[in-house]
Amino acid sequence: MDEIEIIRKKKMMELMQKMSGEEKIKAVDTPVKLNTANFDETLKKYENVVIDFWAEWCMPCRMIAPVVEELAKEYAGKVVFGKLNTDENPAIASRYGISAIPTLIFFKNGRPVDQVVGALPKSEIKRWVERNIK
Questions:
Q1: How far apart are CA 32 and CA 18, in angstroms?
Q2: Which residue is catalytic, options 49, 51, 61, 72?
Q3: Active-site residue among 49, 58, 92, 125?
Q4: Is 61 annotated in the active site?
């Protein structure tokens, strides 16, 4: 098969995927900034989502922010990490009963399945994520 034929077949497959609505979702390797406009859509789009409920003034939230960044890279393709500022999105925070921050909630197929509260070490958060992926 010559090179042009290979390219033609690849383009045809891409076109067929688009038309059938089976476009592959690219792996997300950085935390997604969530708000009322994209929150529900993000939960519907991805199977496994971890949301970090945080606020700018919260020191423990700032402490785990780099951990959330690292885990987003490590779990790209398996888990999507999102960050929701509770001061800017109080309705969503109250929907999930957030009374302390940081709170991490693990969503599977759009439903909350587990949560942890507080600035836990990376190893603990990673163990929690692993437990919930299965």
A1: 24
A2: 61
A3: 58
A4: yes
